[in-house]
Amino acid sequence: MISVEEARQLIAATTVDFGIEEVGLLQCLGRVLAQVVLADRDYPPFNRVTMDGVAILSSRFGSGQCVFPVEGIQAAGSAQLTLHDANNCLEVMTGAMLPKGCDAVIPYEQIEIKDGIAKLLTEEVKPLQNVHLQGTDSKAGQKLLSPGAIITPAVVGLLAASGLNKVQVKRLPKVAVCATGDELVEIDETPLPHQIRQSNSYMLLSTLQAENISASRHHLTDDPAAMKDQLREIIASNNVVLLSGAVSKGKFDYLPQVLNGLGFETIFHGIAQRPGKPFLFGKIKNGPVVFGFPGNPVSTFVCYHLYFKPWLHQSIGKEHQPLKAFLGRPVTFKPNLAYHALVQLSYPEGRVIASPVDTSTSGDMVMLAQAQGILTLPAGRDEFGTDEAFELTLV
Ligand SMILES: Nc1nc2c(c(=O)[nH]1)N[C@H]1C(S)=C(S)[C@@H](COP(=O)(O)OP(=O)(O)OC[C@H]3O[C@@H](n4cnc5c(N)ncnc54)[C@H](O)[C@@H]3O)O[C@H]1N2
Ligand code: MOO
Ligand SMILES: [Mg+2]
Fold this sequence. Notes:
about 400 residues, Molybdenum Cofactor Biosythetic Enzyme, Chain A, Molybdopterin biosynthesis moea protein, domain 2, Molybdopterin biosynthesis moeA protein, domain 3, six-stranded mixed beta sheet, 8 helices, elongated, binds molybdate ion, metal ion binding
């Protein structure tokens, strides 16, 4: 058995670059940008009025004039008007081009308009007030976004403003999710007393969905020959195989043996941790990376978050932000294993507090559904107090 740290290093050493693909603007949320985005024009592209009101030449106000006949209206979306007489003003709307001949905008709240004449009620008018000057935010040709940027909704907005309806992003792997075991039935079946529904596959498919990956779903039976045939096909058409179950010491835990007959190179089998001790990790020669999660639902879930997710993020260039949290109550854990505690989170006075939820075993799906995070308490200690921060993984 290896330590959590060793497992992480070995997994990080197997990351794969899946290349680049082009997707539609509304398909790119959460993806990693793989291109440079340049400003196709200045931002803002013209001197933009920022308040509804009137535009004047500010020096006129400075020389004592405070009434300005209204020459016309400059609306947003209309071509730029010109103020013909510098003693006059133009009404202007937020988002309009500042008219030629004007350099300041006074909001409606600071004027009175009567019989076509605007009277300024303000003490001061500064040149360029309430004007968002052309090119302030970016000049045409300047870099707006670099490869590696995570596409958030605000980034989608910027891409749209730049006229991009297709975007180059890092390609995601093709993933197969495989449940194993003769006790598993489909979720729309009524299980016999000795059967259970295969919930792990759906848990994995949905957490992959959050990564924009729509994986294929498979059920491998506890028959080594049939399992081998099924896996051969799955291996041939995927970049990653996520398996749950059949990696422990049971008489029907055929997975390691079957994989070995398919060109599997074991990188490790077993981590000094709870849950997830029998985790099997390796790679098919010239084929996919294989994560063999232990079948208990909590083990599958924890190993996905602690090992697969960082591997995926490293492969596609998503930066990992390490988080820490304080225990909500002291924990005693005697085995010499790292303990990944399921926790609920609270934030009193800005402190992140992780309170362990009590699971009966790593088969406890009911409490698993209450978890908001995983707090990793390191191996080599028995007692964990509330005054020390530990590594937190959000789920
Ligand atoms: N003699 C030993 N026995 C066990 C050890 C050990 O070290 N020595 N380790 C235990 C630990 S820890 C775990 S975790 C499990 C892992 O077992 P497997 O990976 O072989 O998984 P299975 O035996 O196939 O199933 C375990 C458990 O999980 C349920 N399961 C499996 N797949 C699904 C699914 N898709 N959806 C819902 N539930 C699933 C399965 O029915 C079993 O109850 O081994 C311990 N034993
Ligand atoms: O680690 Mo097993 O994963 O304890 O149930
Ligand atoms: Mg087993």
